[in-house]
């Protein structure tokens, strides 16, 4: 699929829901305008943006604005050659992303929730000792090697890397033991991190 030449991604100046999309575009060497808004700018700029559902990220192309991070990510994956052509392989990759997202949302709900400090820490500790390890064990079983669905990387491998960088690394012990306890998952993270496709993006970050 040929990529448009006028892609503009708008999101906060942080990883959040936008980093997965940025990584996908970068991996496929798809040119796009990476428009980042600070939290200080958000109040003033919100009224000037076309926000179909009142939130970011948004993707503008061909004079239209599109929303919802995973929908945009799937489009980015197709432009980057990372979305599987085989419907069953695509189903597997999408299901892996959904599984990671559901667990990641549990973590984010705690981080950005309104529990008192002690309750929040107790919940976060439980994520590190129970919730994340359970997810990783299930993901480990799904890896066909060298990537999730076999020889070629998909958007699921990129999402795993995003999850590792912005959630798993918050638990140093779990991250340190990743290669020992979940070697296939650790290998995917390493391959994505060391890929030539993302080298330029990491230099800019």
Automatic annotation (TrEMBL):
GO terms for molecular function: glutathione transferase activity. Residues 5-84 form the GST N-terminal domain. It comes from the Eukaryota. Pfam families: GST_C_3 (PF14497), GST_N (PF02798). InterPro entries: Glutathione-S-Trfase_C-like (IPR010987), Glutathione-S-Trfase_C_sf (IPR036282), Glutathione_S-Trfase (IPR040079), Glutathione_S-Trfase_N (IPR004045), GST_C (IPR004046), GST_superfamily (IPR050213), Thioredoxin-like_sf (IPR036249). This is Glutathione transferase. SUPFAM superfamilies: GST C-terminal domain-like (SSF47616), Thioredoxin-like (SSF52833). Gene3D superfamilies: 1.20.1050.130. One of its GO terms (biological process) is glutathione metabolic process. Residues 86-205 form the GST C-terminal domain.
């Amino acid at each position: 699929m040929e990529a448009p030449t006028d892609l503009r991604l708008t999101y906060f100046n942080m990883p959040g829901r936008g980093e997965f999309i940025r990584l996908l575009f970068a991996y496929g060497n798809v040119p796009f305008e990476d428009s980042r808004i600070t939290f200080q700018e958000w109040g003033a700029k919100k009224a000037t943006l076309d926000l179909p559902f009142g939130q970011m990220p948004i993707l503008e192309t061909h004079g239209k604005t599109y929303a919802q991070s995973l929908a945009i990510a799937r489009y980015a994956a197709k432009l980057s050659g990372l979305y599987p052509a085989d419907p069953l392989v695509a189903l597997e990759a999408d299901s892996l992303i959904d599984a990671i997202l559901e667990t990641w949302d549990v973590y984010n709900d705690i981080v950005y929730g309104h529990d008192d400090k002690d309750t929040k820490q107790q919940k976060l500790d439980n994520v590190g000792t129970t919730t994340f390890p359970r997810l990783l064990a299930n993901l480990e079983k799904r890896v066909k090697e060298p990537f999730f669905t076999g020889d070629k990387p998909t958007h699921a491998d990129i999402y795993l890397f995003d999850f590792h960088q912005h959630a798993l690394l918050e638990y140093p012990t779990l991250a340190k033991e990743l290669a020992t306890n979940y070697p296939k998952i650790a290998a995917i993270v390493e391959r994505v991190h060391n890929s030539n496709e993302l080298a330029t993006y990491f230099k800019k970050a």
